[in-house]
UniProtKB/TrEMBL annotation:
Single GO molecular function: thioredoxin-disulfide reductase (NADPH) activity
Domain FAD/NAD(P)-binding: residue ranges: 9-299
Cofactors demanded by this protein: FAD
Source organism phylogeny: Bacteria, Bacillati, Actinomycetota, Actinomycetes, Kitasatosporales
EC number, UniProt record: 1.8.1.9
Subunit structure of this chain's protein: Homodimer.
Catalytic activity: [thioredoxin]-dithiol + NADP(+) = [thioredoxin]-disulfide + NADPH + H(+)
Species per Swiss-Prot/TrEMBL record: Streptomyces atrovirens
Name recorded for this polypeptide: Thioredoxin reductase
Length: 314
């Protein structure tokens, strides 16, 4: 039989900027939050990067892992409790919500803040992970600045790929958009903007077939023609992969409303989900901005929403 614990005010699932900020605010409000940070991905997406130059308060920049350790320490200082484990099952329907960890322990709370983030889709190529932050990126807003005067490839054919390509022309010498098909999925306005940019060229019916490395950095890319199978080499030293994201909402299917792409829906501008007492924050909700600061901001909003919900119960 599963062990069962007492009823908490707040449980937070996720230890990225959204989860830790929600933890800080609920801890300071005296709600003693319990945070599940994940078994292997403690600190969230920023732990997979190096320099973060766009989080306010760090004029010289800050390393991603260091920023996340600081956020955690700040929340712990006010009494947030951290368990570095995955939640594998939830029951969010009743007044008392339950979440179950990998040991089968059931934790109960009046409110749950979901801050499980989203994962960038990968190409699935050898060296892709190894070269992340070393020429390979999934976020032009985050990393474009580091690619001045470089030849860059952007993979994808949707709005995000066009937006990334157009944004990157501010820094890059050239941008090549690589797309598997002969036509783009992006909206006409985004396509027109990209087509009219002198720095952007297109490799249609093409896919990235290989990544080359020199001194630990991306040094070139092999492209394969999806129709003929022929390959050719590009001397690009930057690769931005813009083929979509997968929000981590598998656990909540059938219990919380999700949109057609699987993102958690909230009653914007609040963080209230379709179930009273459950709040959503960060990239698991956000299609659009996907930045550490916006995730932290919505984590703050979720904490305040949970606080108000709990106050109304008494
Ligand atoms: P995440 O940070 O993704 O955290 C999600 C958390 O949920 C993780 O802790 C995970 O362990 C946990 N989790 C998921 N499922 C479960 C479960 N079942 N049980 C328990 N825990 C679970 N943004 C910037 O602003 N500036 C940058 O320079 C920047 N660089 C980036 C570089 C890289 C390589 C990447 C990948 C992202 C970068 N970003 C950057 C984007 C930024 O990291 C995200 O927007 C931000 O981390 C989202 O925060 P989040 O809290 O919503 O989710």
């Amino acid at each position: 039989m599963n062990a069962t614990t007492g009823i908490r005010d707040v449980i937070i699932i996720g230890s990225g900027p959204a989860g830790y900020t929600a933890a800080l605010y609920t801890a300071r409000a005296g709600l003693s939050p319990l945070v599940f940070g994940g078994a292997i991905f403690v600190g969230g997406s920023l732990t997979t990067t190096t320099e973060v130059e766009n989080f306010p308060g760090f004029p010289a920049g800050v390393q991603g892992p260091e920023l996340m350790e600081n956020m955690r320490a700040q929340a712990e200082q006010f009494g947030a409790e951290m368990i570095d484990d995955d939640i594998v099952a939830v029951d969010l329907t009743g007044d008392v919500k339950t979440v179950t960890d990998t040991a089968g322990t059931v934790h109960r709370a009046k409110t749950v803040i979901v801050a499980t983030g989203s994962g960038y889709r990968k190409l699935g190529l050898p060296k892709e992970d190894e070269l992340s932050g070393r020429g390979v990126s999934w976020c032009a807003t985050c990393d474009g600045f580091f690619f001045r005067d470089r030849d860059i490839v952007v993979v994808g054919g949707g709005d995000t790929a066009m937006e990334e390509a157009t944004f990157l022309t501010r820094f890059a010498r050239s941008v090549t958009v690589v797309h598997r098909r002969s036509t783009l999925r992006a909206s006409q306005v985004m396509q027109n903007r990209a087509f009219s940019d002198d720095k952007i060229s297109f490799a249609f019916d093409s896919e990235v077939a290989g990544l080359h490395e020199e001194n630990g950095m991306l040094s070139g890319i092999t492209l394969r023609d999806t129709l003929s199978g022929e390959t050719r080499e590009l001397a690009a030293t930057g690769l931005f992969i813009a083929i979509g994201h997968d929000p981590r909402t598998e656990l909540f299917k059938g219990q919380l409303n999700l949109d057609s792409e699987g993102y958690l829906t909230v009653e914007s501008p609040s963080t209230r989900t379709s179930v009273p007492g459950i709040f959503g924050a960060g990239d698991v909700v956000d299609h659009t901005y996907r930045q550490a600061i916006t995730a932290a901001g919505s984590g703050c909003a979720a904490a305040l929403d949970a606080e108000r919900y709990l106050a109304a119960l008494t």
